[in-house]
Amino acid sequence: MKRIFLIVLSLISFELVSHAQIAFVDTRYILNKMPSYRDSVAKINQLGIIWQKEIDDKQIILDKMVNDFERDEVMLSDSIKKDRSNDLYYHQKEVRDLQRMRFGYQGDLSKKKQELLKPIEDSVNNVVKQTAARLNYKIVLDKSQGITVMFANPKLDITDEVLKDLGMQ
User: Fold this and answer.
1) Handedness of CA 73, 78, 84, 87 (dihedral sign)
2) By C-alpha distance, which of 109, 82, 103, 164 is closest to 131?
3) Dihedral of CA 99/105/109/112: which sign?
4) CA 93, 96, 102 angle in degrees (round to 5)?
């Protein structure tokens, strides 16, 4: 009796596993096909270039100040040395603060990415969920987000279905 129960249980388990509804999708591929996403990425990259030039220009001025100070230091009185040293410190802090403000963890670039890209990514994620529900998939893996899929049957890739649901194919 115990053997029969174990055999039936293993057959039921095998049946459940063999009908697992798992699919995968490549959201990076989908996003890169969307003109609005590509335009937003281009805007963000352009802002990054502009902001980096702003920092580089301030750094050039700071480097010149440092060189001038080192060149003239021997001839300066203690009070002038102190004033120029304080001025250098102020400008160094200004450059660091600007870098942090533009490119830091919650800097302008990060905020701009949130503002421009997050709504598009959220809409794609919602369509992925809707597509998965429509096709009766229980689990959908995103192969572009670092999940290693060693092998997958191409029939399980719903990327094209998501693109259709987005009206892109």
Assistant:
1) positive
2) 164
3) negative
4) 135
The one-letter amino acid code at 62 reads: L
pLDDT digits (tens, 9 = 90+) for 24-82: 888 999 999 999 999 999 999 999 999 999 999 999 999 999 999 899 988 989 999 99
Angle between helices 108-116 and 78-103 (to 10 degrees): 10
| d(C-alpha 92, C-alpha 95), whole Å | 5
Do 60 and 129 touch, CB atoms closer than 8 A? no
Q: Give the per-residue pLDDT at 1.
A: 55
User: What does the domain layout of the chain look like in residue ranges?
Assistant: 21-165
Give the torsion sign (CA, 28, 29, 31, 36).
Answer: positive
CA-to-CA separations, 117 to 28, 114, 125, 126, in angstroms, rounded: 12, 6, 12, 14
